[in-house]
Each structure stands twice: as structure tokens, then as C-alpha cells.
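Onboarding guide, step 5: your first structure request.
Type a short instruction followed by the sequence, for example:

Predict the 3D structure of this protein.
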Amino acid sequence: MKSKINRIKIKYKQKIKIPEEFKKYFWDEPDGFTFLEKFILRVFKYGNFEEIKRVYDKYPSEAYDIGFRYPDIKRGIRYWLKRWKGEI
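The system replies with C-alpha cells like these:
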């Protein structure tokens, strides 16, 4: 019996220019542009607290949505997303 793999579809497909301080997380994007969703996910995965806060301040609704759509986002990031949104 084959199991079905459920993939999460990209919702935020707009291309953005990668800010200089985040280029270290995008070794696979030599042109300096990436999808907004990929940008937020990489910062959530590799970034520190200040970087995550900076991304949330710039893209609050997108960051919140992405933070709760992907199961591999750390619990601490979800806590801060709720706190910054005012739910806690």
C-alpha cells in the first residue's frame, strides 16, 4: 500500500529581493531574489530572534500564516508570533 504525500502548496509566490543580511541563508539563489514564502521559512529555520522579529515586522500576516501552516516550525517561534500578534 502506497501512502499519499501531502505537500504544502506555496501561497506567497511574489518574488522579493533578498536583503543583504539574509543572503547567507540563500546559497541556492545566486540572482538575489526568492519567493516570499521561501524567504520567511528560511529565516524561521536559520535566523536568530532579532532576524525573525524583523521579518515579522515587515510581513506580519504572511509570517503568522506561514508559521502555523508548516508543521516543522519550532514551538518557540509560534509562541512569539502569537505574542507579537496580541493573542497572548
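Each response can be followed by summary notes, for example: Helices lie at 36-46, 49-58, 60-69, 75-85.
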